[in-house]
Amino acid sequence: MIVISLLEELRLKGIKIDNDGDKLLIKGNKNKLTKDLIDQLKENKNKILDAIKLTKQQQLFHDRVIYPTPCCEDIPLSFAQESIWLHEQLEPNSKNYNVPFVRLIEGKINVDYLKKAFEIIIERHSILRTIFYLDNSEVKQKIENKMEFSIQTEKINAGINDVNLRSRINDEISMLFDLTHGPLFRALILYLDANKAVFCITLHHIITDAWSFGLMLKELTTYYNSFISGQSVQLPMPLIQYKDYAFWQREWIKHNGHEEQLIFWQHQLKDIPYQLNLSPNLISNQDRAGGICSFAINSDIRQMLIDTTARLNITPFALLLANYQLLLYRCTQQNKFITGVAIANRRYAEMESLFGFMVNMLPIVADINLDLLVSEFIQQVQSDNLSALENQDIPFDILLNSLQVERKPGIPPLVQAVFSFQNAAEINLKFTDIKSTIINFDLQIAKRYLILSIEDDGKQFVGAFEYAKSVFTEECIDKITREFNAQLQYLLQNINCSLRATPLTMINIAGATVSSSDAMVNEVILSDRPMSVIEQKIADIWQEVLNIKNLQAGANFFRLGGNSIGMIKVMTKAREQGIHFSVRQFLKNQTVAALAKVITDGQ
After folding, report:
1. Chain centroid to CA 8: how far?
2. Contact 177, 184 (CB under 8 A)
3. Burial class (CB in 10 A: 0-12, 13-18, 19+), 54
4. Strand (E) positions, 34-184?
5. Which of 47, 132, 160, 510 is most buried (CB neighbours < 10 A)?
6. Strand segments (E) across 457-500
7. What confidence tens digit (pLDDT) does each residue in 549-583 have?
8. How high is the mean pLDDT of the chain?
9. Cβ atoms within 10 A of the Cβ of 134, count?
10. Is 0.85 topped by the overall pTM?
């Protein structure tokens, strides 16, 4: 009662007491703090901290949508888990759902402390002690009271780029799990020498997602570092467990809580093609081999992007998604199509600390209207995404069933291209006195035709295209990656220009060529530099034929309104000035700079 009376007295004086961890924060008019009140605060500090934390917990409880459930038997699967389980039965030897984390660690790692930290995390998150079984033709999940865990260690005589090491890593992250008996995650340390090792953590997707992985690594780092320092630490318990979410989701669907969201999606996806026209051979090709092409968006472009989004009051996510959609438009020439956006699906406070498979897929409609300004298109993408986020609770598989999407072998239903954006710092290791470095590993299976993942590490955007080898060649993906970067730079430099004036020429996937790559780079890099003599002559002719002014070296004839008749007029006027080039050369080099270079090289 002393604490309650003290806090009430301070409140009446216009002083509020809050906390920052284990520190008291005094807000308001501090001049009204008497020596007696200060002494009481010091004397009752721990009790005040407990009272503040309890109040916050109670407030969170009252604001909850999902509540803890006492039942620990006959636990249903979430719809996302059920989808994975069914696919596992259809492909019992599949490695599709192994989720790996591989890092090179430099420094002395204490395996005993690492194991102790894992054991605490396993106790905190019941999904890590969960197995899956059939009960009268119904699949359920069961939480074990205890799950044995060990960290396997090996010594391997190999360098970081050695084939034997790569093979061992791939064997580890590809090893199958037993859903019926568990455990559904494991850890391996491959020692290269006394101070260098490869650390592998692998979980089954049915119990985790990227957000959960981030939670695990954050807790692992916190506990491990506390053991190293000898200082005890106690993290707050999760507000709910995954079983509570699974019960809530089933009840929500059972009582038609999803109907309003379902109507939204049915309206959004009406008359939208369910398939991207990426290749004529997709229907018959079921090869699911995948590849990865990594890239970086440098710090200058990142800063330009951040400045632009702040000025337009849009998010980096929306701008990057818009750039991706324009890239897909150039690959397919479809004005309307579906882009999948992978979301963490944690819109309620109690979900933020929840470990489990929560991620959901939102089928965002890309509507490419070339009459819009670049800025208007990006704002449209942001508006569409915000509307989708308001309707994110409906499970993707429920949506597929309601839309009666036809399932075809080898073709991902409804969504073939996916975009995800996240903070890379959330999935990282920060052990005391240990350096951690990412190790790339082979992608065994392509889950979609094309997945673009971008992470912000605070200095640059790091991206990766995951692709199906049955659709894209390595050469084609390499060129698409360069196009994504060049196109992004162009959009940022021409944010108030019409989409129709942007370099959106066709990307030819089937032929593994990108027809506009050189033109794109020219238009980005050469837009402001002075023109050479031959470039100026070509520009003057184009201006006369097209009836326009102020052409630059990166200008593209056909996107300025040129056509085949205009091309013949240009060639005729050029010959009159002693400038010669063929139709083939003109079609292949559509910018002032590119055509001038061909002419100069031929002289």
Report:
1. 46
2. yes
3. exposed
4. 98-106, 130-135, 138-143, 151-155
5. 132
6. 461-468
7. 777 777 777 666 666 567 778 888 888 888 988 87
8. 84
9. 11
10. no
Q: Which helix (H) or strand (E) holds 360?
A: strand 360-367
Q: Which two tokens stand for residue 170?
A: 């791939």
**Token pair listed for 138:** 């119904």
Listed in sequence order, the DSSP H helices in 313-356 are: 316-332
Q: Are 467 and 293 in contact (CB under 8 A)?
A: yes
Distance in Å from the first CA to the final CA of the chain: 95
> Tokens in use for 111?
């395996």
505/49 Cα distance (integer angstroms)? 62
SS3 for 250-294 is HHHHHCCCCHHHHHHHHHHCCCCCCCCCCCCCCCCCCCCEEEEEE
Q: Are 347 and 63 in contact (CB under 8 A)?
A: no
CA–CA dist 293, 176 (Å, integer) = 25
Question: Which of 414, 418, 404 has its CA nearest to residue 273?
Answer: 414
User: Is the distance from CB of 141 to CB of 75 less than 8 angstroms?
Assistant: yes
Residue that the structure tokens 């979410």 belong to: 245
Sequence letter at residue 283: I
Place of tokens 């190293």: 228
In the chain, which residues have pLDDT < 70?
Answer: 1-5, 8-9, 11-12, 53-64, 279-287, 409-410, 423-427, 442-444, 510-530, 558-565, 603
Query: Which 3 state secondary structure label does DSSP give 400?
Result: helix
Identity of the residue numbered 449: Y
Contact by Cβ (8 Å): 298, 460:
yes
Nearest residue to 144 via CA among 208, 213, 72, 84 = 72
What's the rounded Cα separation, in Å, for the pair 309 and 318?
9
Query: What is the spatial distance between Cα 382 and Cα 141, in angstroms, rounded to a whole number?
Result: 38
